[in-house]
Amino acid sequence: MTLTIHDRGTVRPRRALLAGSVGNFIEWYEFGVYGYFATIIAARFFTPEGGSEVEALVRTYASFALAFFFRPVGAALFGRLGDRIGRRPVLIVVILLMTGATTLIGALPTYATVGALAPWLLTFLRVLQGLSAGGEFGGAVAVMTEFAPPGRRGLYGSWQSFTVALGLLGGAGAAALLATVLTEHQLNAWGWRLPFLLTLPLGLGALWLRLRLDETPAFREERAAERPPAREVVGAIALGAGRIMGWAAAGYTFLVVLPSYLQSTLDATFQQALVATVLANLGFAVTILPAGLLSDRFGRRPVMLTGAVLVAALAVPLLNLLQDPGVSLTVKGAAVCGAGAVVGLMAGPGPAMLTELFPTNVRYTGLGLAYALSNAVFSGCAGLIITETIERTGNVDIPAYYAAATCAVSILALARSPRRRAS
User: Fold this and answer.
1) Beta strands in 137-287 (DSSP E)
2) Of 67, 82, 325, 350, which residue is most buried, by most CB within 10 angstroms?
3) 421 has pLDDT over 70
4) How far apart are alpha carbons 334 and 372 in whole angstroms?
């Protein structure tokens, strides 16, 4: 059957949404799984005989952070290619690299088998994941927003954040299911590997979708346009990174680091920590698409500012509520769900906001670097900073201070207008 022009106009944006979103889902599914199984991975890969559990957890988060610091490298490398040869071919390479590295984590030998080589192998694969993740965001968001119909860039861009929530939920769901059906011994011995191995069929499906993807009309039309001055691009990158700093830090604090914090600091069980994380991610997912839609009507900054102000004001009261043994589990569950929902107000408009900071011929690189730099420092280091600081100070309110402080910086960055508006 031959598609009419109207049919093509409908199918191409939807196909772009699906092809762009599926890579984000895989990326954040894996990062979620790694975070949720952090205590098990610490024991399997970072605990030589006689090592402490806290020390192993810090090393696990250090590996986690290292992968994030390779995101800007991937964003620069793949972004430059994506702005020169096209979004589609680069996104195909990225999904292959991401799928291969994540699948191999599920097959790695542990410290008990190969000794000190085990953490190095894991860290190497995390580096490859960081490179691929750095190249994923810029291309995926560029594809989704450049295919977006007029007046719908916020909604289309919000699908990137929505699939982040779905990926984290998928990782939490896989971890919760395994924790339920397997014994503790089975989960620690081999069960933790299964969610990583599941990435292989997911990645093959994503590859098939990207092979069918068209190049964006905006790239074809403007690839040869004059590039803006480097100083202007660097300024836009810095401004974008500042605007999403609170989203990056609060998102990882409440959505990924929370399970380990609840277990190591508040003595929660693994199952209780996972339930709390699922609730936080559900709240996050529920508000993302409406926030993106609202940003199409009222602007990106008002919606994002609302989320940043709420996190800055409510982070400490929320954590104190979780620490109070007299508060019911129902109230605590509602609180973590609300925390996720507030982060969603920043995450929904965020991709479109970054897109609009850069013209088409530097967009893949620019928005990818802004996102990668912010996440490298404030997401990738969240677990390491929080765990190490609590260990050194004994202050269990550190996660709230961290989220509130970064959101305060985002408020200042959001209040500042860029020098130019991208097409």
Assistant:
1) none
2) 350
3) no
4) 31
Determine contact, residues 134/341, Cβ cutoff 8 Å. Answer: no
Torsion of CA 50, 55, 61, 65, to 10 degrees: -110
Picking from 414, 1, 49, the residue whose alpha carbon sits closest to that of residue 240 is: 414
- Residue 47 CA to residue 115 CA, distance in Å, equals 10
Of the candidates 248, 279, 266, which has an alpha carbon nearest to the alpha carbon of residue 383? 248
Q: Per DSSP, which regions of 98-219 are E strands? A: none
Phi, psi of 267 (to 5 degrees): 60, 35
pTM of the model: 0.83
User: pLDDT grade, residue 224 (50/70/90)?
Assistant: low
Q: Are 211 and 89 in contact (CB under 8 A)?
A: no
Amino acid present at 80: R
DSSP three-state, residue 213: coil
Residue (of 110, 107, 128, 127) closest to 119 by Cα position: 110
CB atoms within 10 A of CB 402: 22
- Dihedral of CA atoms 140, 360, 131, 195 in degrees, nearest 10, equals -10
Average pLDDT over residues 261-290: 83
* Residue among 250, 225, 27 nearest 138 (CA): 27
Q: At what angle do helices 270-298 and 329-347 cross, to 10 degrees?
A: 40
Give dist(CA 341, CA 351) in Å, integer.
17
Label residue 269 left, alpha or beta by phi (over 0 means left) and psi (-120 to 50 means alpha): beta
